[in-house]
Specification:
- This protein is of the alpha+beta class.
- It folds into 4 domains: 205 residues, no CATH class; 153 residues, Immunoglobulin-like (Sandwich); 82 residues, no CATH class; 112 residues, 3-Layer(aba) Sandwich (Glutaredoxin).
- Helix content is 43%, strand content 16%.
- The protein has 18 helices and 16 strands.
Length: 601
């Protein structure tokens, strides 16, 4: 099983998209029309930061941040000096603190000297710009290196040269020393302040986020895995039980780091920033997960040796072995990634901005937090020993755990079969069929009517819950099914037109595989009072469905510098940048950020 999960992790990396992320706009200008051997010259790199973003300055206030750097490409004919950068603006950002940043348009000047023996002829000067940009809301993208080139010529000494762009370059003489900073009239680099000690705080926040992950809607399908693991581990002594818990935790942390690595390395590996959970938008990844869950479900009801070839035996791992617990931990982490927990975006953004070792340490804290409750429970096996170990009840419980496995598989692939939200009826069908099979199994396993009656009641609850869930998620329970027509499908043109209207614009980033997104839909946007208030404010509602990998909304998510969904962006005429609501929030939070446009009371 561990091999299977590892294989899926590799597939997730291959499935990462190459969508373009926002970048700096660069222009390089030479201070003269041609170069001469032995002469000095200056190159200005004019940088324009995208609207709504800022770049880390050349002297960030935290040593873990990526400084803005300009370097000259290697050329034996050129001797570059240290660039002269502008001062960074000191600004305060929520959740991050004080930072030294560049915004808008700024210029970096790089002095160069042409070697005295440089032959005449054409030359290309390549300038590499290393930078990291962040949204003004505080979400940072992965560091990038961009290259801008100047094409010019080296001419013979004595041939006339014309100076250009006096606005960028004050007059100098070729006799000026290359090491004399007076040859460049540009503001000095700001003195670096004492680096902030944010790493320890971010590790603590990562631990908290991991703990919160355990109660997010997206982890509901993995609860049976944790329950079964805890129950099986309790049959052993405390030391053995704790060791099994450690292995389960290592599985969680290991795969969590593997998935984090895809995100942290995606910019350099694939050319664009991959978002957390984005792999669930890739068709063959979703089908692969569904097949894996189906196989595990079949194993739980004991049909392996009858219907599956021996090649699948390795998937039937056990909760009472070390390797089996690693596999269960990996699967638990994998199934938990379609959505994000509160504050996870900040942790992920911080990790992306750091050197890789720091980024992995920060993300490991999230995995530790997620596995911590199970690890603590494994130290108290006597809690689970109160449940029966032998007889028909444990066997029936194990088989019942296959129902959420099958339901999750159907939930993943259902939108590709019947569409969203009709796929919830497939989930309901699994619940109803599973409930019926429970009754049949109870009749065969139990010799008394008591066990059969209790199982029958549980089966009715399971079937009823499945049908009720389908009615709720399709909007038929509260009559909100027609409200789906109020949402405009996302496109760049639709967003631009909505912003021109002067009305508040609400862009909801969602996906059928994101359970937390569905929770937000039902608790916030399906709430009648919230809908009435949005209508009163004249809000334009736009839905960016990211269920599929080619969805146009992915580009906008990248522009916003966000690391996962759910996410709601609120655009108003009173603010230059959108307000971003990530993970779980309530109606009051949504309406509060629309209130500046129009009073809603």
């Amino acid at each position: 099983m561990t091999r299977a999960i590892t294989f899926i992790t590799i597939l997730l990396a291959l499935a990462s998209s190459t969508r373009a992320a926002p970048e700096l706009k660069l222009e390089a200008v030479l201070d003269r029309t041609e170069l001469q051997p032995g002469a000095t010259a200056r190159v200005a790199v004019i940088t324009e930061v995208p609207t709504g973003f800022h770049a880390q300055s050349s002297a960030p206030l935290d040593k873990f941040l990526i400084p803005f750097r300009v370097t000259v490409g290697e050329d034996k004919r050129i001797q570059p000096a240290e660039p002269v950068y502008p001062n960074g603006a000191i600004k305060q950002y929520f959740g991050v603190g004080k930072m030294s940043v560049y915004g808008g348009r700024f210029t970096t000047v790089v002095p160069i000297r042409i070697n005295a023996d440089a032959p005449a002829g054409p030359i290309e000067i390549k300038l590499n710009v290393r930078s990291q940009i962040c949204t003004d809301a505080g979400n940072c993208l992965a560091p990038t290196t961009q290259t801008v080139t100047i094409s010019t010529s080296i001419v013979h000494v004595g041939q006339p040269v014309t100076y250009t762009r006096a606005d960028l370059f004050p007059p100098i003489t070729d006799a000026a020393s290359l090491n004399d900073r007076s040859v460049v009239d540009a503001p000095p680099i700001a003195a670096s302040e004492e680096p902030t000690k944010g790493l320890a705080a971010m590790l603590g926040l990562g631990l908290l986020v991991g703990l919160i992950f355990n109660v997010m809607p997206c982890v509901l399908p993995v609860l049976p895995l944790k329950i079964m693991g805890f129950y099986e581990a309790s049959h052993h002594r405390r030391g053995r039980s704790l060791m099994l818990g450690v292995m389960f935790s290592l599985g969680v942390i290991g795969l969590f780091l593997a998935m984090a690595g895809i995100v942290l390395l995606s910019k350099s590996l694939f050319g664009a920033q991959t978002q957390w959970g984005q792999w669930f938008s890739v068709g063959w990844v979703v089908w692969g997960m569904a097949i894996l869950l189906g196989v595990l479900g079949i194993s739980m009801i004991g049909l392996f040796t009858v219907q599956l070839p021996t090649a699948f035996y390795g998937l039937n791992f056990r909760h009472d072995t070390l390797s089996g617990n690693v596999g269960w931990g990996m699967l638990t982490a994998l199934l938990s990634t379609p959505c994000t927990a509160p504050m996870f975006a900040g942790v992920m953004a911080y990790a992306i901005t750091q050197p890789l070792p720091i980024g992995f340490v920060v993300m490991s804290s999230v995995g530790v937090g997620m596995s911590l409750p199970y690890l603590l429970l494994s130290g108290f096996p006597e809690v689970a020993r109160r449940f029966p170990r032998a007889g028909p009840a444990p066997a029936l419980i194990k088989e019942a755990m296959a129902i959420p496995m099958f339901a999750t598989a159907v939930w993943l692939v259902g939108p590709r079969l019947v569409g969203d939200p009709d796929h919830w009826w497939l989930v309901a069908g699994v619940a109803v069929v599973g409930a019926a099979l429970l009754i049949v199994r109870a009749y065969n396993l139990f010799k008394t009517n008591r066990g059969r009656i209790v199982t029958g009641i549980i089966a009715i609850v399971v079937a009823g819950a499945g049908v009720t869930l389908a009615l709720e998620m399709t909007g038929q329970l509260d009559g909100t099914a027609a409200d789906r027509k109020l949402w405009t499908e996302y496109s760049d043109e639709a967003l631009a037109a909505a912003q021109v209207s002067g009305k508040p614009v609400v862009v909801k980033f969602t996906a059928s595989w994101c359970a937390t997104c569905q929770y937000i839909d039902r608790t916030v946007f399906a709430d009648k009072a919230t809908r009435d208030q949005l209508a009163k404010a004249g809000a334009v509602l736009i839905k960016a469905d990211l269920t599929y990998e080619d969805a146009v909304g992915w580009k906008q998510l990248n522009r916003l510098g966000h690391t996962g969904i759910p996410l709601t962006a609120i655009y108003t005429t009173q603010r230059p940048e959108p307000v971003l609501l990530d993970s779980i929030y309530d109606s009051a939070t949504l309406l509060k950020n629309i209130a500046p446009v129009q009073r809603l009371d």
